[in-house]
Amino acid sequence: MDIRDLEGPIPKEHENRVLHAEMFISAQRFMMSDSITYDSSQSANTACTLTAVFDSADEVKKAFDVLKDGSTIIVPMHSTTYSSCHVSLIDKFGIRWSLMTESTK
């Protein structure tokens, strides 16, 4: 989407919102944006979790290092019966993440 696709001027309080952002975790591309409806009643919602699965614990740790600043840790990094490395957090933007491996080794 291009800013020119929006109808009308951008309200002053929304000038710093993100229209489009991309990030890569390993080779996986994620795309995201702030709400572009200008609905001020919307707030951060952590009812949904974005889970990213990695091949190794080192990759989980690298992704965690990117997301941890300003975050709230829900489940500290640990191993489980289903994952050699798992961590859950809410990032500084209010997005809930679960980062994990599918391997127990």
Report on the structure:
By secondary structure, the chain is mainly beta. The protein has a four-stranded mixed β-sheet with strand order 3-6-5-4, with helices on one face. A two-stranded antiparallel ribbon has the order 1-2. The protein has two domains: 1-43, no CATH class; 44-105, Signal recognition particle alu RNA binding heterodimer, srp9/1, CATH 3.30.720. It contains one helix and six strands, in the order βββαβββ. The model has no long low-confidence stretch (mean pLDDT 80). It has one helix spanning 57-67, and strands at residues 21-25, 28-32, 49-54, 72-78, 86-90, 96-101. 10% of the residues lie in helices and 32% in strands. The protein is elongated and about 55 Å long.
Please sum up the structure shown:
By secondary structure, the chain is mainly beta. 10% of the residues lie in helices and 32% in strands. The strands form 2 sheets. Strands 3-6-5-4 form a 4-stranded mixed beta sheet, with helices on one face. Strands 1-2 form a two-stranded antiparallel ribbon.
